[in-house]
Every structure is written in C-alpha cells, then in structure tokens.
Amino acid sequence: MPIHQKLSADGVLELVIDAPPVNALGIEDLAKLAAVVESVDDRPDVRVVILRGEGRGFIGGGDVKEVQRLPGFEGILGQVTGSTALTVGLHDCAVPVIAAVHRYCIGLGVLVAGASDIVVADEACTFVLAEVDNGATGGAVQAMGLMPDKRLRQAMLTCEPVLGRELASYGTVVAVPDEGSVPKEARRLAGVIAAKRPSVVRAAKKAINGSARRDIGPLYRQETALTLELNMRGDATEARETFVSGERRGYLSRDTSS
Questions:
Q1: Are 146 and 168 in contact (CB under 8 A)?
Q2: What is the number of domains present in the chain?
Q3: pTM flag (> 0.90)
Q4: CATH code at 114?
Q5: Which domain holds residue 86?
Q6: pLDDT tens by residue, 223-257
Q7: Is the Cβ–Cβ distance between 176 and 188 less than 8 Å?
Q8: 81 burial class (0-12, 13-18, 19+ CB within 10 angstroms)?
Q9: Phi, psi angle pair for 131, to nearest 5°
Q10: Mean pLDDT value across residues 66-92
Q11: Is residue 164 part of a domain?
C-alpha cells in the first residue's frame, strides 16, 4: 500500500492512504502506517499529522479477504496486532493527529478516527462499526472517542451507519458540508496548531492523554480476546464468509467492499 507523505514548510505532515479500490488495510499496510506514525516522535520538524484517504473514501476496514486467505489464525492475529499498533500509535503520537474523513469510514477506519485527536468529516459521511458482521468484538475503546455509550452499543450491535452530522452533534467530529471541504478544513486546523509553540503542543497532548486515561493497548487486547475465541470456535470464519459473499453487506453499497 502506498503511503504518500508530504511535509509542508510549517511542519504539517500529510499521510495519504492509497489502497484501491476502497482503502481496505491488510496486515502489511497496518505495519507500514504504524511505523510512519511512530517515527514522528523523533521528528522535531513535524508539528501536526493529517491522515486521510485517497479515492472513494477514508478507510474501508481491514482486508477481510486476506484474513480468510491466510492459513490458520494468521490473518486474524495479524489484523489484531496491526490495528492495535496503529491505533495506539495514533493515540500516543507526540503531535496532534487530525483524521480527514470523507464519504465512508468502516470498521478499522472508525477505530483509526476514534484514536485520532481531531476528526473532520463531511456531514453525510457514514461511520460503520462492522465488527459484529465480521465475527469480531473489538473496537469499543477506540470508538468511544466518537460517540456516547448507548449510541456506541447500538452502532456496534446493529452495524448500522452513523452519519458525520450526528457525530458533530456530540462534539466529536468537525462536520463540513461536503467531502471536498474535508481536506481544506483539516489543513486549516493543522495550520492553526502548527503555528503554536511545538514543545507546548506536544506537552499539551501528553497532558490530555493522561487526564483522559484511555489505555487503548490493553483494553483493545482484552476486547479482541473474544474475537480470537470466536475464531477458534469457527463462528468468526463463518461470519466473514457470509460478509465476503455479500449476504450481509447492505452498507457496502456505499463503496465499502474490500
């Protein structure tokens, strides 16, 4: 997966995910992106990170077909390990991370957005927690950064989409009228932050993380332990096969198929 990187003169590092057709992330993709995010800690020239997707939408989830294709539990273990590294990396990144989300944000994409510091999305953007349809259980600890408890439970248990304008009503997303405005607003916010004293911004993010006390790593591992149990029983494999076959992919009509 190409990860296009561009560092502006004011210290804004833009990371663009480009994995056609829908930006579904495989195991190697997750490792590469996590490594880039983690490297920011040792880069004083970076003041803010913008993470966005190229093409039809933000992130179309994990690569379910890869999980099915790999032998044994290699696929699901790789996805769990990779998604943990990436979301922990985003949350713990030394500088603020802005997720610029357009059109759709599915499964893993919601986790990535939830682990970011600021989320900019178009009002009609669909956020779908598709884990249950894929035989998985994790993601609540990241997604709670986007919606309150009862709404989160509904979204996870039904796999029905939540619109960007609704998340904006909770104050967790900066909603803009259309997808073309997403990168512009993300860049504007990044510029405002980048103009401030870097050492203070880095310290402020660390302080916020400490007060929020959202320890994503161990909590996500705890959640996904049930996913691994479902895989050992065979229930998760059957759920993914149904998902891939298209029988329960109503939301994939929004261009979210991997």
A1: no
A2: 1
A3: yes
A4: 3.90.226.10
A5: 3-176+204-254
A6: 999 999 999 888 888 888 877 766 435 554 544 33
A7: no
A8: middle
A9: -60, -45
A10: 95
A11: yes
